[in-house]
Amino acid sequence: MPAPEPVPQPVPSDPAARAGAFLTVDLAAVVANWTQLRDRVAPAECSAVVKADAYGLGVARVVPALAAAGCRTFVVAQFEEALAVRRALEPVAPDAQVFSLGGLPAGCEGDFIANRILPVLNHLGEIAAWGAFAALRGGALPAVIHIDTGMNRLGLGPDELDALAAEPARLAGIDVRYWMTHLACADEFDNPMTGAQLDRFRSALARLPKAKASFANSSGIFHGPDHHFDLARPGCALYGVNPTPHLPNPMRGTVRLDARLLQVRNCTPAMTVGYGAAHAVTGPARIATIGVGYADGYLRALGGKGQVFVDGVAAPIVGRISMDLITIDVSGLPEQVAHAGRMVELIGPSRPVDRVAAEGGTIGYEILTSLGRRYHRVYLGG
Ligand SMILES: *Cc1c(COP(=O)(O)O)cnc(C)c1O
Questions:
Q1: Rg of the chain over all Cα atoms, to the nearest angstrom
Q2: What whole-number distance in Å separates Cα of residue 242 and Cα of residue 120?
Q3: Is 197 in the pocket of ligand 1 (CB under 6 A)?
Q4: Ligand 1, closest atom to CA 365?
Q5: C-alpha separations of 17 from 21, 66, 260 in Å
Q6: What is the CATH code for 255-351?
Q7: Does ligand 1 lie within 6 Å of residue 155's CB atom?
Q8: Are 342 and 261 in contact (CB under 8 A)?
Q9: How far apart are CA 216 and CA 227, in angstroms?
Q10: Which atom of ligand 1 is nearest to the CA of 186?
Q11: Is 275 a catalytic residue?
Q12: Ligand 1 centroid vs 150 CA: distance in angstroms?
């Protein structure tokens, strides 16, 4: 019998060729933003807040890049996030410190010790538990202690502060690395709340055993050196959100979102586009569809609002945002520009994160932390 003919095998294409949308994260811009803030707060130390997967950009890539630039303190919200940061730090800066803002879950003290994660102790119960664990082990254990100065979410409230100031022995066995607080209105530069919180923090520090202090988030840094204390905690500014909304953005943009036009069609008056027939075409129009939707974090609230850019030329978003698709009106663009396969910019230099957020009735933080998992991610620099 003759040998069977070899079956031709399909050649797999490049994932980038198959992708409909690309998220480009500029790690060099993240590092440049951190370096700018580091220089601004010196001689105070500058940490990096990398909660929520580094505000959606990716802890596994952002943390090593910042550690290589010299960042030695990383802040997250939850224990599991802290573990991911530890893993990312291992090859670059195993000595760096990691704080978990969300407190000390009961019975998990050993996990913090084993992974060298500093709990941020938010109430007297957590202080007692950490102290008791230290006594069991013998030897002091490091922690950050959060004093509430006006947020009323986490941290020692006024009564708890009084109790601690009256009985500092409650801190036995605890090596207080920092006293910290968090600002409620730092992005509103004429809001008296920031000054009131500064006064409350200073008077709390005066009543407590001496240790380093941490006060400012991104916007707090821009209130001046008396807001820097020993450690600043910027998050959003690292990722390009404007920490000074009343002024031009001093930070570099760090993400770009580009998508391919999947299809371009001609519509005539009285035709409607998308779910709910929410957009009615009023004249002859060319409507293009791109493969990004609310399942990718492109908020449904952005339906019918804002624009995308094709070669720097604006094309309005029309109709509702679907789970996987967005429709845009490209009637104003030449056919040889707006054709299937063409890339358009949804977020980037022509359309910064803060503008997309404003159009969607939200803040840049939410746009970044919603960035989807389906994008073909490309990391530059770092
Ligand atoms: C999220 C957070 C920050 C960072 O805030 P940005 O406004 O993103 O700079 C700092 N400190 C605490 C306690 C936080 O929860």
A1: 25
A2: 27
A3: no
A4: 8
A5: 10, 30, 11
A6: 2.40.37.10
A7: no
A8: yes
A9: 6
A10: 7
A11: yes
A12: 15
Contacts of 90 (CB under 8 A, 6+ apart): none
Q: CA-CA-CA-CA torsion for 45, 46, 50, 56, nearest 10 degrees?
A: 180
Could you tell me the two tokens for 34? Answer: 């951190």
Which tokens is 379 given? 């990391």
Distance separating alpha carbons of residues 333 and 271, to the nearest angstrom: 20
The CATH architecture one would assign to domain 27-239 is Alpha-Beta Barrel (3.20)
Question: Is the peptide bond between 43 and the residue preceding it cis, with omega within 30 degrees of 0?
Answer: yes
Question: Is pLDDT at 382 greater than 80 in this prediction?
Answer: no
How many of the other CB atoms lie within 10 Å of CB of 202? Answer: 14
Closest Cα to residue 379, out of 19, 16, 28? 28
Site to substitute for ligand 1 among 182, 189, 219, most atoms within 8 A of C-beta: 182
What Cα–Cα distance (Å) separates residue 359 from each residue in 106, 188, 258, 278, 354? 42, 20, 18, 18, 9
Place of tokens 């939410």: 366
Is 51 catalytic? The answer is yes
Separation between Cα atoms, residue 147 and residue 152, nearest integer Å: 10
DSSP 171: G
Residue 52 Cβ inside 6 Å of ligand 1? The answer reads: no
Residues of the chain with CATH 3.20.20.10: 27-239
Between CA 288 and CA 260 the distance in angstroms is 10
The DSSP code for 169 is G
pLDDT tens per residue, range 198-233: 999 999 999 999 999 999 999 999 999 999 999 999
Report the nearest-CA residue for atom 4 of ligand 1. 235
Q: How far is the CA of 76 from the centre of ligand 1 (A)?
A: 9
Average pLDDT estimate for 112-129: 98
Tens digits of per-residue pLDDT, 27-76?
A: 999 999 999 999 999 999 999 999 999 999 999 999 999 999 999 999 99
Q: Return the bridge partners of 263, or none.
A: 289
- 253 C-beta closer than 6 A to ligand 1: no
Q: What is the spatial distance between Cα 47 and Cα 30, in angstroms, rounded to a whole number?
A: 13
- Span from the CA of 231 to the centroid of ligand 1 (angstroms): 12
Nearest in space to 160 (alpha carbons), one of 173, 147, 171: 147
**Looking at the chain, which residues constitute the CATH 2.40.37.10 domain(s)?**
255-351
